[in-house]
Structure to design on (208 residues):
């Protein structure tokens, strides 16, 4: 049985409409996927910035720790000019250890402390890392909204700092490598930073 021209035209129009709908659907799905990916990327970048700022705060906290304003504290003796007291293998253990986070320099082929230290473990003190504010009293809010999921932490390695022409009879200036880790609002987001800090020997007669 032959189809009339009007029926053939209607069938062709229906096919055309179906192709147009499929094309629109593909474009809509692509746009939605791109929007979701952009939102996910923005969320990841924001989380990375939170972790970065936390790691920077930990570096600053480590510098305050090194400067140790209370000369009577056990911690202050470990940062005295030319002192290597407390700096050893393992970086100390436990929050009550005044040598917590202080790591001796590992000569090659041994692995440096900043690589071997378990900075990401939940119980930082048990693995030789110093949680933010442990020795300085500083406080960082954590765990809610856009705050870090947990406090950042750091370790301090004693490094050699020989300088030509310096009086060998004088205490050497202390030179440290600080490694800090910060966490984003999601614990899986981490940023690790390093800095070097030289604690100069006070001039003779200067205030200490």
């Amino acid at each position: 049985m032959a189809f009339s021209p009007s029926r053939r035209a209607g069938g062709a129009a229906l096919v055309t409409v179906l192709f147009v709908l499929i094309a629109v659907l593909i474009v809509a799905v692509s746009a939605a996927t791109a929007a979701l990916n952009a939102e996910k990327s923005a969320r990841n970048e924001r989380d990375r910035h939170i972790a970065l700022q936390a790691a920077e705060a930990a570096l600053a906290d480590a510098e305050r720790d090194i400067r140790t304003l209370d000369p009577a504290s056990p911690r202050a003796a470990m940062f005295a000019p030319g002192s290597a007291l407390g700096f050893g293998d393992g970086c100390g253990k436990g929050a009550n250890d005044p040598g917590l986070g202080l790591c001796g320099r590992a000569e090659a082929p041994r692995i440096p402390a900043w690589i071997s230290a378990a900075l990401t473990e939940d119980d930082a003190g048990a693995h030789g890392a110093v949680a933010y504010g442990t020795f300085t009293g500083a406080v960082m809010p954590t765990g809610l909204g856009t705050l870090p999921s947990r406090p950042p932490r750091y370790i301090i390695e004693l490094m050699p700092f020989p300088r030509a022409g310096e009086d060998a009879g004088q205490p050497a200036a202390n030179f440290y490598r600080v490694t800090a880790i910060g966490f984003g609002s999601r614990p899986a987001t981490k940023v690790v930073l390093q800095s070097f800090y030289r604690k100069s020997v006070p001039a003779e007669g200067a205030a200490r």
